[in-house]
Design a protein that fits this description.
CATH superfamily: MFS general substrate transporter like domains
Structural class: mainly alpha
Strand content: under 5%
Mean pLDDT: 88
CATH class: Mainly Alpha
Distance between the termini: 16 Å
Shape: globular
Largest sheet: none
Number of domains: 1
């Protein structure tokens, strides 16, 4: 990959920006609610549904936004769409910073933040799929490390700044970094290696698996393709679980707190182990990508689902006052989940549809997946209001079993870009 110096420069910048995209996608989609919820509840007396409603409504809009952004990426290119979206994301963060007790401004700003993180995720995925075939899994394993990085550094830093300097300074700082990210996106990357006179993976030729013209992917094709429905069900469940888990992990620990946990169990105990466990789990993002490159996306997806249980089971059985071994297992699982799911989603979609058809198929798949995902926070909120949050985690485990079985049924699906990958007879044939 780095034998071509020009390709190396572009790919390194793409990976660095990709890490930033996933850092803010994960952090500003749901993770920052772990700071907003207790802060706003304590300072303004807002309940958790009032605080998170903008995210729930935003998630409904995201259902259509996946389709719109995907179509615009295909028609206009990633950068032309991503740059203005990054500007709107920064504007939303400024709005949160300035809102104070103005719920209207807070609602609009948080809503804007929730929907504008979507182009970050989709853009990072499409750029990686465009630039890499042979090394796709490993590159995405690096890029998606940005998600658990927010668990390690972002939540702790945001909590510290919010507690010491206030919420305003915390979100103004985030907005400044996002603006810088937008400037680098404008000047330092290209949509496709061909736009820079290069080929995927830094190769000296065009991909062997793309010699034939590919048919456009339509909604009718997706709805009648069993492969698409297996992707929608399995990874739709994984997305639902990750949103539910990340949005309510602070609330879960607060409900398990004792009078000795000052200010609360999440800050005093769980946040420490989240950092430690996340640091241990970050390499799993790369390992999953390596498994994808060497053994294929289906086997890597099965490993990912098993790792999800490490995040869900400890919160289901966590006792009041917390339990350190369970917290460590939970934190490790969170890192594997937040880093691994973004790695494997574009990998498995590219595996089924190939580099050329990736975004054409992905825009429909993610749109349909976003429908149940939009209700993940409301799902957790409803169980929390009933005092039955433990039950919610057992339901999540049941959904993961369904996802595992669904992926098992995909074991005979071939890799669309097999001729340019490293595993099996196809790799030998390519040589």
């Amino acid at each position: 990959m780095f034998k071509n110096a020009k390709f190396a420069r572009y790919s390194i910048m793409l990976m660095l920006l990709g890490i930033c995209y996933m850092f803010f996608y994960s952090g500003l989609q749901n993770d920052h609610l772990n700071i907003l919820t207790p802060y706003l509840a304590q300072n303004y007396g807002w309940n958790d549904l009032k605080i998170t409603n903008p995210v729930t409504y935003g998630a409904l809009v995201v259902i259509i936004l996946y389709l719109i952004i995907g179509a615009l990426f295909v028609k206009l290119g990633v950068r032309k769409v991503l740059i203005p979206c990054i500007g709107l994301l920064a504007l939303g963060c400024i709005g949160i910073a300035l809102a104070g007790e103005n719920y209207g401004l807070y609602f609009i700003s948080l809503f804007l933040v929730r929907i504008m993180v979507v182009p970050l995720q989709m853009g990072g995925f499409m750029l990686s799929a465009n630039w890499f075939i042979k090394y796709r899994g490993r590159v995405l394993g690096i890029v998606t490390a940005g998600s658990p990085l927010f668990s390690i550094a972002g939540i702790g830093i945001l909590t510290a700044v919010a507690n010491s300097l206030g919420l305003k300074m915390a979100y103004m700082a985030i907005a400044g970094v996002i603006v810088l990210m937008g400037v680098l996106t404008a000047f330092c990357i290209k949509d496709r290696p061909e736009d820079a006179g290069l080929f995927p993976d830094g190769a000296e030729r065009s991909p062997l698996s793309e010699n034939e013209e590919s048919e456009d992917v339509t909604l009718k094709m997706i709805l009648t393709d069993s492969r698409a429905w297996k992707l929608i069900i399995s990874y739709g469940i994984l997305q639902f679980v990750i949103v539910a888990m990340m949005a309510y992990m602070a609330v879960r620990y607060i409900t398990l707190g004792t009078p000795d946990d000052v200010p609360n169990l999440f800050v005093s105990k769980a946040l420490l182990w989240l950092s430690v466990g996340a640091a241990l789990g970050i390499p799993m993002s790369y390992i999953l990508g390596y498994i994808d490159d060497k053994l294929g996306s289906i086997k890597a997806s099965l490993v990912l689902i098993i790792l999800y249980f490490f995040a869900v089971i400890p919160l289901a059985i966590m006792p009041v006052g917390g339990n350190v071994p369970l917290m460590i297992v939970w934190a490790f699982g969170v890192a594997c989940m937040t880093g691994g799911m973004p790695t494997m989603h574009p990998c498995v979609t590219s595996y089924v549809y190939g580099r050329k058809q990736y975004m054409a198929a992905n825009k429909w798949i993610m749109t349909i997946q976003a429908i149940p995902m939009a209700f993940a926070i409301a799902f957790m909120g409803a169980f929390n209001q009933m005092g039955q949050l433990t039950t919610a985690y057992y339901i999540l485990m049941g959904l993961l079993v369904i996802a595992f079985i669904t992926v098992l049924t995909m074991k005979n699906i071939p890799d669309a870009n097999a001729a340019d990958r490293e595993y099996g007879a196809a790799a030998d044939k390519a040589v």
